[in-house]
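Q: Fold this one first, please.
A: Sequence and structure below.
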Amino acid sequence: MTKKEILKAIEKMYEDHILEMEQVKLLIDGKRVKNLPPVKKEECEFGKWLYGDAQKIKVILGLQIYSTMEIIHEYWHLMYAKIYDLYYLDNESMLKKVFFLHRRLSKEEAKEAREYYAALEKASTDLLEELNTATRRVLALKERMFTQFD
């Protein structure tokens, strides 16, 4: 894992996360969404990256940055799961899944979904800030720091 590779991975995680937020926003806006993020934190691209090479990433980013990202990421998925459940929990028919249909929310449920989305946006902002911090950290590291992983 080279310095360039980790910087590229962080940039990709940043971009992927923005795309995930756009998909969730479409859902909140009542649109059909074909590519919703996975509910489980280990299954999204960020989770695969964060947990896949966890030991290497912890060393490169430092335990504090890694732990902060992990906590924010987990919270993001908790809030997202609440939104997902509101739209899809009782909507498990195969036909509806094929056509990317979600159930229609009551006014109370829609309000609840918007409240969860507000928390999701805050977590998203925090996660993106932490990715920026990670980028600055990696840029500040000497190239020899990365040779130990070859």
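Q: Good. Now the second chain.
A: Here it is, same layout.
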Amino acid sequence: MTLAIFFVFAAFAVLGGVGVLLARNPIHSALSLVGTMVSLAGIYLLHHAEFIFAIQLMVYAGAIMTLIVFVIMLLDVRHEETESERLGFGKVIGMVLAGLMVVVLLVPLGAGLTGKAGGMTEEVLARVGGVEFLSEKLFTTYLLPFEIASVLLLVGLVGAVALAKKRL
């Protein structure tokens, strides 16, 4: 039964991702992204990661998506839709990068998924707890990637404000 529910959430996540790519209206694309994030939260709940489930819903599906919708509304997208199509070279580069991404994702499948098991076992969860284990890993082993991700989010926010600012 759990496997069937997982496949339902996974299908909704994939459909939401496809909706993000295919939607012509940016607001519809953002709503598809919200659907994907809610589906991921459901998958976290299936894996007994209640804390990450709650954070996924509150932070990503709530706060960050609200920020994205505000930026979309500030950018005056209707004006940009009326301009001529000038992104021919950009589309070619996008297709090349998408092909490279598919290759990078398929290479591990061809080599076989022979990764080692992680450190979060049932015994560790019972002894330490999920949130303590996660926070210990996040702020010791993965501190640099965590800080890089936060700086990238800050740069994205500053870029969104710069794009939304009206030129005088």
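Q: Anything worth noting on the second one?
A: The chain has two domains: 1-78, 122-168.
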